[in-house]
Protein 1
Amino acid sequence: MLLLEGISNIYKIKILVENCMSSLEKWQIDNDKNGWQSPIAFSNDNVVRKKLPPLQFGNYERKFNVSLRNTGHTVQLDLDTTDIDCDDLPVVSGGPLEFDYTLDHIHFHWDVEHTIDGHKYPLEAHLVHYKTSTGSFRNALKFNDGLAILAVFYDYGNCKENIFKEFVQGIEDVSRNVSCGVPVDGICFCGFLPNYVKSYYTYQGTFNAPGIHEVATWVVFSEPATIEKSQLEALSNIDTEENDHPPQKSSPVQEMNDPSIIYNGNFYAAVRKFIRDTRRYIWEAKGDN
């Protein structure tokens, strides 16, 4: 009798596991169809070319105070909103965005998330904005259009001045202290953007930290900004909660199954890309020799 009951219980557990796996597979398929996965491998084969209105950046030229901290997974810049009127905060609108979105924070991925034509850049920054009408980042996670995330690639180059020079010392201060934060004054967020912002990919995707939230409109600029190799080394040389080095593991790159990615570009953007690619191929060829 006990043997029969044991077999019956094992069979019930087997059915339960199979049902869970079936639900998980269906969720995966539905998400593939809807395009609700980040990050994405961009290529000419999986995009729809479409002319969108220009992106509008409000208060991006102003200087703000931030808190620079080691989250245990990455370096993050949190906007200090103390004594700042809501109308004076950095805001992005236009393009694929139907509403205004207010900047909440910036974090970095040196195990880069997205790829373009199979190429991975050494660094990717995510400028995370929340829908202004929701009032906060936390509230925005409740809405399927709650976040707008601007993704900026960085390539190596010699640059006399860039935004990273303004807080490299702060990175060294927090690199060995998980969750520790230090104030950094006078950050101008336009310095994180590439020189050319009229060319980008956009899609509806997920915000993956912490958890997975299907609430994000992604805008991924096709033109990279510049960072010095020593700056990236300082940025990525941090202690983490797991004490692993390198301290990041990027999310799996997704191949979209339907043409739900929009590419907003023009002939000028294509010329700039051709020049960048040519320079990279020459540089890589020299490296092989």
Note: The mean pLDDT is 81.
Protein 2
Amino acid sequence: MAELCSQEGKSVYLIFHVFKMLSEKVDVRLYVNPVELERQRTLHFSPDNYTVTPTANRKRKQIRKL
């Protein structure tokens, strides 16, 4: 997780999900405020094996492709 700090001292947390790394078209998803996304059940955190996965029951917002 990356942490960015603003001048007011507030923090913004981001998760970058990079996948299809061995293909010709690498894909990236950016999740802003992952704690809120977990609360909304958009992301699921598994602390036992340190994984974060999008949940299947929520419609994903399209993020600009890089």
Note: The chain is about 10% helix and 40% strand.
Protein 3
Amino acid sequence: MTSTAASPAFGQTPALPAEAPARAAARAASAVPAATFPSGSGLPERLSVAVVLPCFNEEKSIASVIADFRAALPHARLYVFDNGSTDGTRAVAERAGAAVFGEPRRGKGNVVRRMFADVDADVYVMADGDGTYDASAAPMLVRTLIDERVDMVVGTRSGVTDDAGRAGHAFGNRLFNVLYGGMFGFDFSDIFSGYRVMSRRFVKSFPALSAGFEIETEMSVHASQLRIPTLEVSLPYGRRLEGAPSKLKTYRDGFRILRTFLFLLKETSPVTFYGALAGLTALVAIILAAPLVQTYLATGLVPRFPTAILATGLMIIAALLATCGLILDSLAFSRREQKRILYLSMPAVGADARGPEPK
């Protein structure tokens, strides 16, 4: 279930003694009792909300981002996960009052994996630490998640093309969104948005295998594959502060995202991936064999045996690829069932706060 809304104005967890100290500390911090929201806030009481901010060299903006989210969600817990910043990001975030943890493995995907593993909450609000996302929209996104009974609300970036410096990124964004629709379904219009509000059962059922900026793509594929209910809300997208360049490398990250597309297609729909390879291989075999067949029909002779052998071999390879696709598709279906069962094993967000259903 995916739709687009109008844009507004701009319990405790068991201890694991074998864990590393930093990881154990993060779990301990996240195991505090759920926050109680005021009755007039529009949010269910006893709802635990965590704002998680992956950061890398965001010294100039992180303090204002923390302040904005604290003003928007005063009862939420704020976490900053620093990805080995070389500036003062960590110190600034600590002075701003956020709980700060480190992830030494470089890459946004590694940070997101750590955040989702170490933080426990009913609702997760994820945004970047560069100040480009509107923190004041967070309460509305959380209410949308609960009221519409979905598991992820994506804040799509309505002004992503306003900055001339993002022209190449904007073109790539449109191209990859179209490609995503053709490969996985047209469930999202902005698969690269980093502003997402998610339920606990989405977060804890998400494997988070990517290492870099392709993590948002993996999150979108996870939702599309399991038919998880989602919504999109159009939000304004701000400019980065002067002297704080984007961490995205156009060509390097573009190729990594394309590689992720192909990998996820192979894993989620092997019959499509291997079927395409089988079809392409069979087409080459047919093109090579066509003149030989014409000559044979006309003369009864096969003049080019090496070409005939090559065409035959390619057709055998095509049959093998198609067979592999069918077998692996059955395995992928079984894995999809297991993921769905894990997802359904956790209660919906705010389920205990909705009260009895009407008879």
Note: The longest strand covers residues 49-55.
Protein 4
Amino acid sequence: MSPDARALLAVARKELRVLRRYPLTLLNTMLFMPLYQLVLPVLLLGTAFLVKGRSLGMDELTGTSDFGGWLSAGLVGATVTGTVLSGPAQAMASERGLGTLEQTWAMPVSRRALVLGLMTCMTGLSLLAGVTMAVLVSLVAGASYGPGTVLVLPVFAALVPGLAGMGLLSASLSLLWRQAVGLTDNLGYVVTVLAGVTFPVAVLWDALRPVSYLIPTTWAIDLSRRAALGADSLYPPAVEVCALLATSGLFLAGGTALFGRMERRMRAEGALGQH
């Protein structure tokens, strides 16, 4: 195993140990906050407009009246994407406060591997939290999933490169601005809105819809809803699969290039070890 691979796994294990020491904080961040900030308000608002237990407007726009199932599919994508965007900045700020960031980054391994190790831990935990929330919403709202739900797994596998790019983007912003937590948190909220987590992308303004199409989470969520619920998709599935792969690759390439540029800039200024 290469040094970078060992460093990636070591960082992932270290982050997992730290989070396990504070289980209430982990539950609050991964489960309770999304529940009371996003899930419950949207679910209750949608339930208030049901007609004889069916969401007629959603049926017309999306091809399914299963509001709980439709929302659940979006929650998984939103949880993973939001965590990956905000996580690296929060972790770097925490290590900076503890005084361990410089020692960690001084190791003779790729700093990109350190960020990806952090992202690996957070992606796994956020996936678990997202699935847990989806199950809870499904039980409360009585969602019904079809046999195609198993196809959601390869869809989110195709999203992973895009998530890696988002994590590198978050780390790049942390290098550029030392206190980037607020910025990355807000960026996660914007992506959640544009990806159509709580409403169909079709209702977005015409000026914003092309931006939504550039986000890989948009395609992952839309494909998941079609696979699990038989809902209508924005475009034919083959086109959406290509769009998901293309945007994931674009985010990975862009995040890698930006992180490398920020790292070279910090090294040239002699500030990387004192960040």
Note: The chain has one domain: 3-274.
